[in-house]
Amino acid sequence: xxxxxxxxxxxxxxxxxxxxxxxxxxxxxxxxxxxxxxxxxxxxxxxxxxxxxxxxxxxxxxxxxxxxxxxxxxxxxxxxxxxxxxxxxxxxxxxxxxxxxxxxxxxxxxxxxxxxxxxxxxxxxxxxxxxxxxxxxxxxxxxxxxxxxxxxxxxxxxxxxxxxxxxxxxxxxxxxxxxxxxxxxxxxxxxxxxxxxxxxxxxxxxxxxxxxxxxxxxxxxxxxxxxxxxxxxxxxxxxxxxxxxxxxxxxxxxxxxxxxxxxxxxxxxxxxxxxxxxxxxxxxxxxxxxxxxxxxxxxxxxxxxxxxxxxxxxxxxxxxxxxxxxxxxxxxxxxxxxxxxxxxxxxxxxxxxxxxxxxxxxxxxxxxxxxxxxxxxxxxxxxxxxxxxxxxxxxxxxxxxxxxxxxxxxxxxxxxxxxxxxxxxxxxxxxxxxxxxxxxxxxxxxxxxxxxxxxxxxxxxxxxxxx
Length: 467
Fold this sequence. Notes:
Blueprint: E1 44-50, H1 55-72, E2 76-82, H2 85-97, E3 104-107, H3 110-118, H4 126-132, H5 134-137, H6 140-145, E4 147-148, E5 151-152, E6 155-156, E7 159-160, E8 162-167, H7 168-174, H8 182-194, E9 198-200, H9 210-223, H10 225-232, H11 241-255, H12 263-266, H13 271-280, E10 283-289, E11 310-313, E12 327-331, E13 334-337, H14 344-356, H15 358-367, H16 389-404, E14 407-409, H17 411-414, H18 417-431, H19 437-453
Parallel strand pairs: 1-2, 9-10, 12-14
Antiparallel strand pairs: 3-13, 4-5, 6-13, 7-12, 8-10, 8-11
Helix pairs in contact: 9-10, 9-11, 9-18, 11-19, 18-19
Protein name: ABC transporter substrate-binding protein
Keywords: Signal
Pfam families: SBP_bac_1
C-alpha cells in the first residue's frame, strides 16, 4: 500500500496553542437543520474564540495573526476572545447547539468535527477549498481527516507528535547517552532513580487527558504503528496481547516510580512544578507533545535560576516491532466555520490567508517553536534561518518520518470520541489498581468496535511511505 500524498515539501498542521486535547463527547446528536447562516459580503467583523493562554502568547496572536490578517484585509475586523482550553470547549459546544457563537470555530479533534458535521452545525468548506486550491496546498492526510461524505468541514491547526525532552546539561554531567532501545532506556531510568532523579516527568493535574499522551507513546513504541493501524481499521482488537503488553509495561514504569516519581505524585504535582524540577535537574526527561516546546524554555537558564539547557529526542523503540525514529502523527485541533455565521465568506478569507500566505506562515513557525506549523507546501531551505534549531528539527524529522512511512497514530486524532475519553479515564483506574491492563484493553476494544460501526473515525493515514 502506498502512502498518502505527503511529500517532503508538504508539511503538517498548525496553530498549536494549548496541548493536545481530549475529544469531547458530542452534545449535539439531537441538533438538526442548517443553522440559518449566510455568506455575507466578505467584509465586516469576524469573531474567533481561541484557547491561547499567557500574555506573551496572546500578544503574539493579536499582533502577528489578527493584525496581519486585518492588514491584508482592511475591510474585515477580527474580534478574538481568549479562553482556557476546557472553558472554550464547553462554550463552543453550547454555542453551536444554540446556533450562535463565533464565526470561526476552534475545534478539538477530527473525530469531534465528524460529530459536529453530522449535527449540521459546521459550514461546508468544499467550495472555498475548490476556489482557493486548498487541496493542493495542505497535506492530503490532514484534509482527509476533516472530510465527511465528500465534504470538507474544517482545516487542521497543528500537527502533533510525542517527543522525549531531556535536560541536556544533566545528561552531559552524568555521562548519559540518548537511549536507543528499551534496554538502554530502562538502564538509564534505573541509574537516574538511583541518584534520586525522576527519570520521566509527567503529571495530569493540569490536563486530565495527559494519560493518553503516555498511551500514545507506549502503543506506538511497544505495540508498533502497524498493530495500531490494524486495530484502528478493525483487522485487530485493542484487547489483543500486543496492546495489553504495552499497558502493562507503562504501569510497571509507574510502579517503579520512574514516571512522575510515583502514581500519587502524577495525580498531585502541578505541571509547572514538574517543569521547574526538570529545569533544575531533579527530573531527567519529560515525554510531551511538540507543543511543549513553546513553554519548556521558561524552566531553563538564568531567568529560571539555573545554568541548564534542554533538548529533545525521539522516544526509542521499546520492542522489535518498532523502527528507530518513529513518530506518532496527529492533529492538534482545527479551524471551521460556524454554520450559523452570517459572515461566512469573511471567515473563509481568514482561513485562506492563514494557510495560504506562505511568508507569514513560515515566519510564525520560526517565531514560536512548534506552535504554528501550518500544513503548507514548502521546502526545508525555505524555513527562516532565525528558527530555533530544535524546532527546525521537529519539522524536518516529521517530514522524514512521513517520507519513509515511519509514523504512528496519536489517540486524540484517530480514536473516536468515547474511546479516546476512555483511553485516559480508564488508564487512571489501571494506575490506581482498580482495573487490570487486560480489562482496560477489553473495555476499550468493545467501546471502539461500537463507535467504529457508527462511522465516527476519520480517514486514516495509510501505512507506507508518502509519495
